[in-house]
Amino acid sequence: MNTQKIYQLGGKITFDDISHLNQTKELSQLIDDLKEDLFQASFPSDQILDIGWYPEFCKEGHFRVVLISKSNWDTPVHSENARNWIELEKALANALNKVKK
After folding, report:
1. Which of 5, 18, 25, 101 would be 38's cystine partner, CB 3.0–4.6 Å?
2. Residue 89 burial class via C-beta count within 10 angstroms: exposed 0-12, middle 13-18, buried 19 and up
3. Does the predicted model carry a pTM greater than 0.85?
4. What is the distance between the alpha carbons of residues 69 and 42, in angstroms, rounded to a whole number?
5. What are phi and psi of 42, to 5 degrees?
6. How far apart (Å, rounded) are the C-alpha atoms in residues 32 and 47?
């Protein structure tokens, strides 16, 4: 996962269990590590980027990438699902494009 843009936007990674996952493996081989809390970063604009797997530990699950503003988890600024590593990178890029500078 490319974290460079997070830092460029002034973000701080506050939780990261996704970087240790072997992204060359199929997700079905990593299912025991795919949980709701995988990654979180905070930004100076009072925004939070959150990535998790839903439902956790489920082969039919998906990554969920959300961008939250002012702790309003009920109405994310951005929410996107991804079924593989390539889609996750795209969803992450889309969410980061909505971070307030």
Report:
1. 18
2. middle
3. yes
4. 10
5. -115, 150
6. 29
